[in-house]
Amino acid sequence: VNHFGNKSKCWSSGGSGQYEGCGEILFNNTVPSGAKLRELIGYVQQFDFHLPSLTVKETLLFHANLRLPQDTDPLKRLQRVQQVLSTLDLHACAHTRVGDAELKGISGGEKRRLSLGVQLLADPAVCLLDEPTTGLDAFTARHVVQTLQQLAHKGRTVVVSIHQPRYDVFALLDDVILLARGRLVWSGNSADMLKHFAALGHPCPPLTNPADFILDISSIDFRSEEKEVESKERLQVLLKGRESYAKLGLTVHTY
């Protein structure tokens, strides 16, 4: 995937609750059809939805029958399921029921990877994940993000929304998009981001999680009028700094 982005938005509600979008999404510098987008993009929701009585392998086979072309040879469907099990390290629980609150089954991390596996069956070029670490313990969250990193480094585009990741999870991210009140504060390499903020007078303190730091300095503090004014002024500095950074001719990704 050479290009996924160049998206601009403008919203107009007119007080009616109806929103109208404008701009365009370009995929490899062309405007794709809705059918093409569904073919190229896999979307993993924040919460896992699976049939608790099915095993992990049965779940993947079920979705393979629904998602893969009808003329796909049954043996090739099974091979695709085996590939996904191997890619996501799910072989050990392949014959374990998914389970739910009443039926003991696989772990939360395994359910997350199974949800990702359902999307990988169709071999999408882009994977979008909505808060993939929600509800997971620290160790499991890191394992899930490591899996996503491996997929990305094999040539697949992986985009995740994530809140307050631990330092070791943040360190796995290649690029970061930081939004504040709907405006773009940063888009680019995570290491360059900290250098950029330091140049604007906001260095990350020692022994501080960079993820917590960037959220703190880009958030509005409403605890008092004085703090609100101060934090809004700081945010304006960050927004102007990002615009100056873009004008230098450095790589800035726009989504």
From TrEMBL:
This is ABC transporter domain-containing protein. It comes from Spumella elongata. One of its GO terms (cellular component) is membrane. It is a multi-pass membrane protein. GO terms for molecular function: ABC-type transporter activity; ATP binding; ATP hydrolysis activity. Keywords: Membrane, Transmembrane, Transmembrane helix, Transport. The keyword Transmembrane applies. Pfam families: ABC2_membrane_7, ABC_tran. It comes from the Eukaryota. The lineage of its organism: Eukaryota, Sar, Stramenopiles, Ochrophyta, Chrysophyceae. The keyword Transmembrane applies. Residues 2-206 form the ABC transporter domain. PROSITE patterns: ABC_TRANSPORTER_1, ABC_TRANSPORTER_2. Its main location: membrane. It is found in: Membrane. InterPro entries: ABC_transporter-like_ATP-bd, ABC_transporter-like_CS, ABCG_dom, ABCG_transporters, P-loop_NTPase.
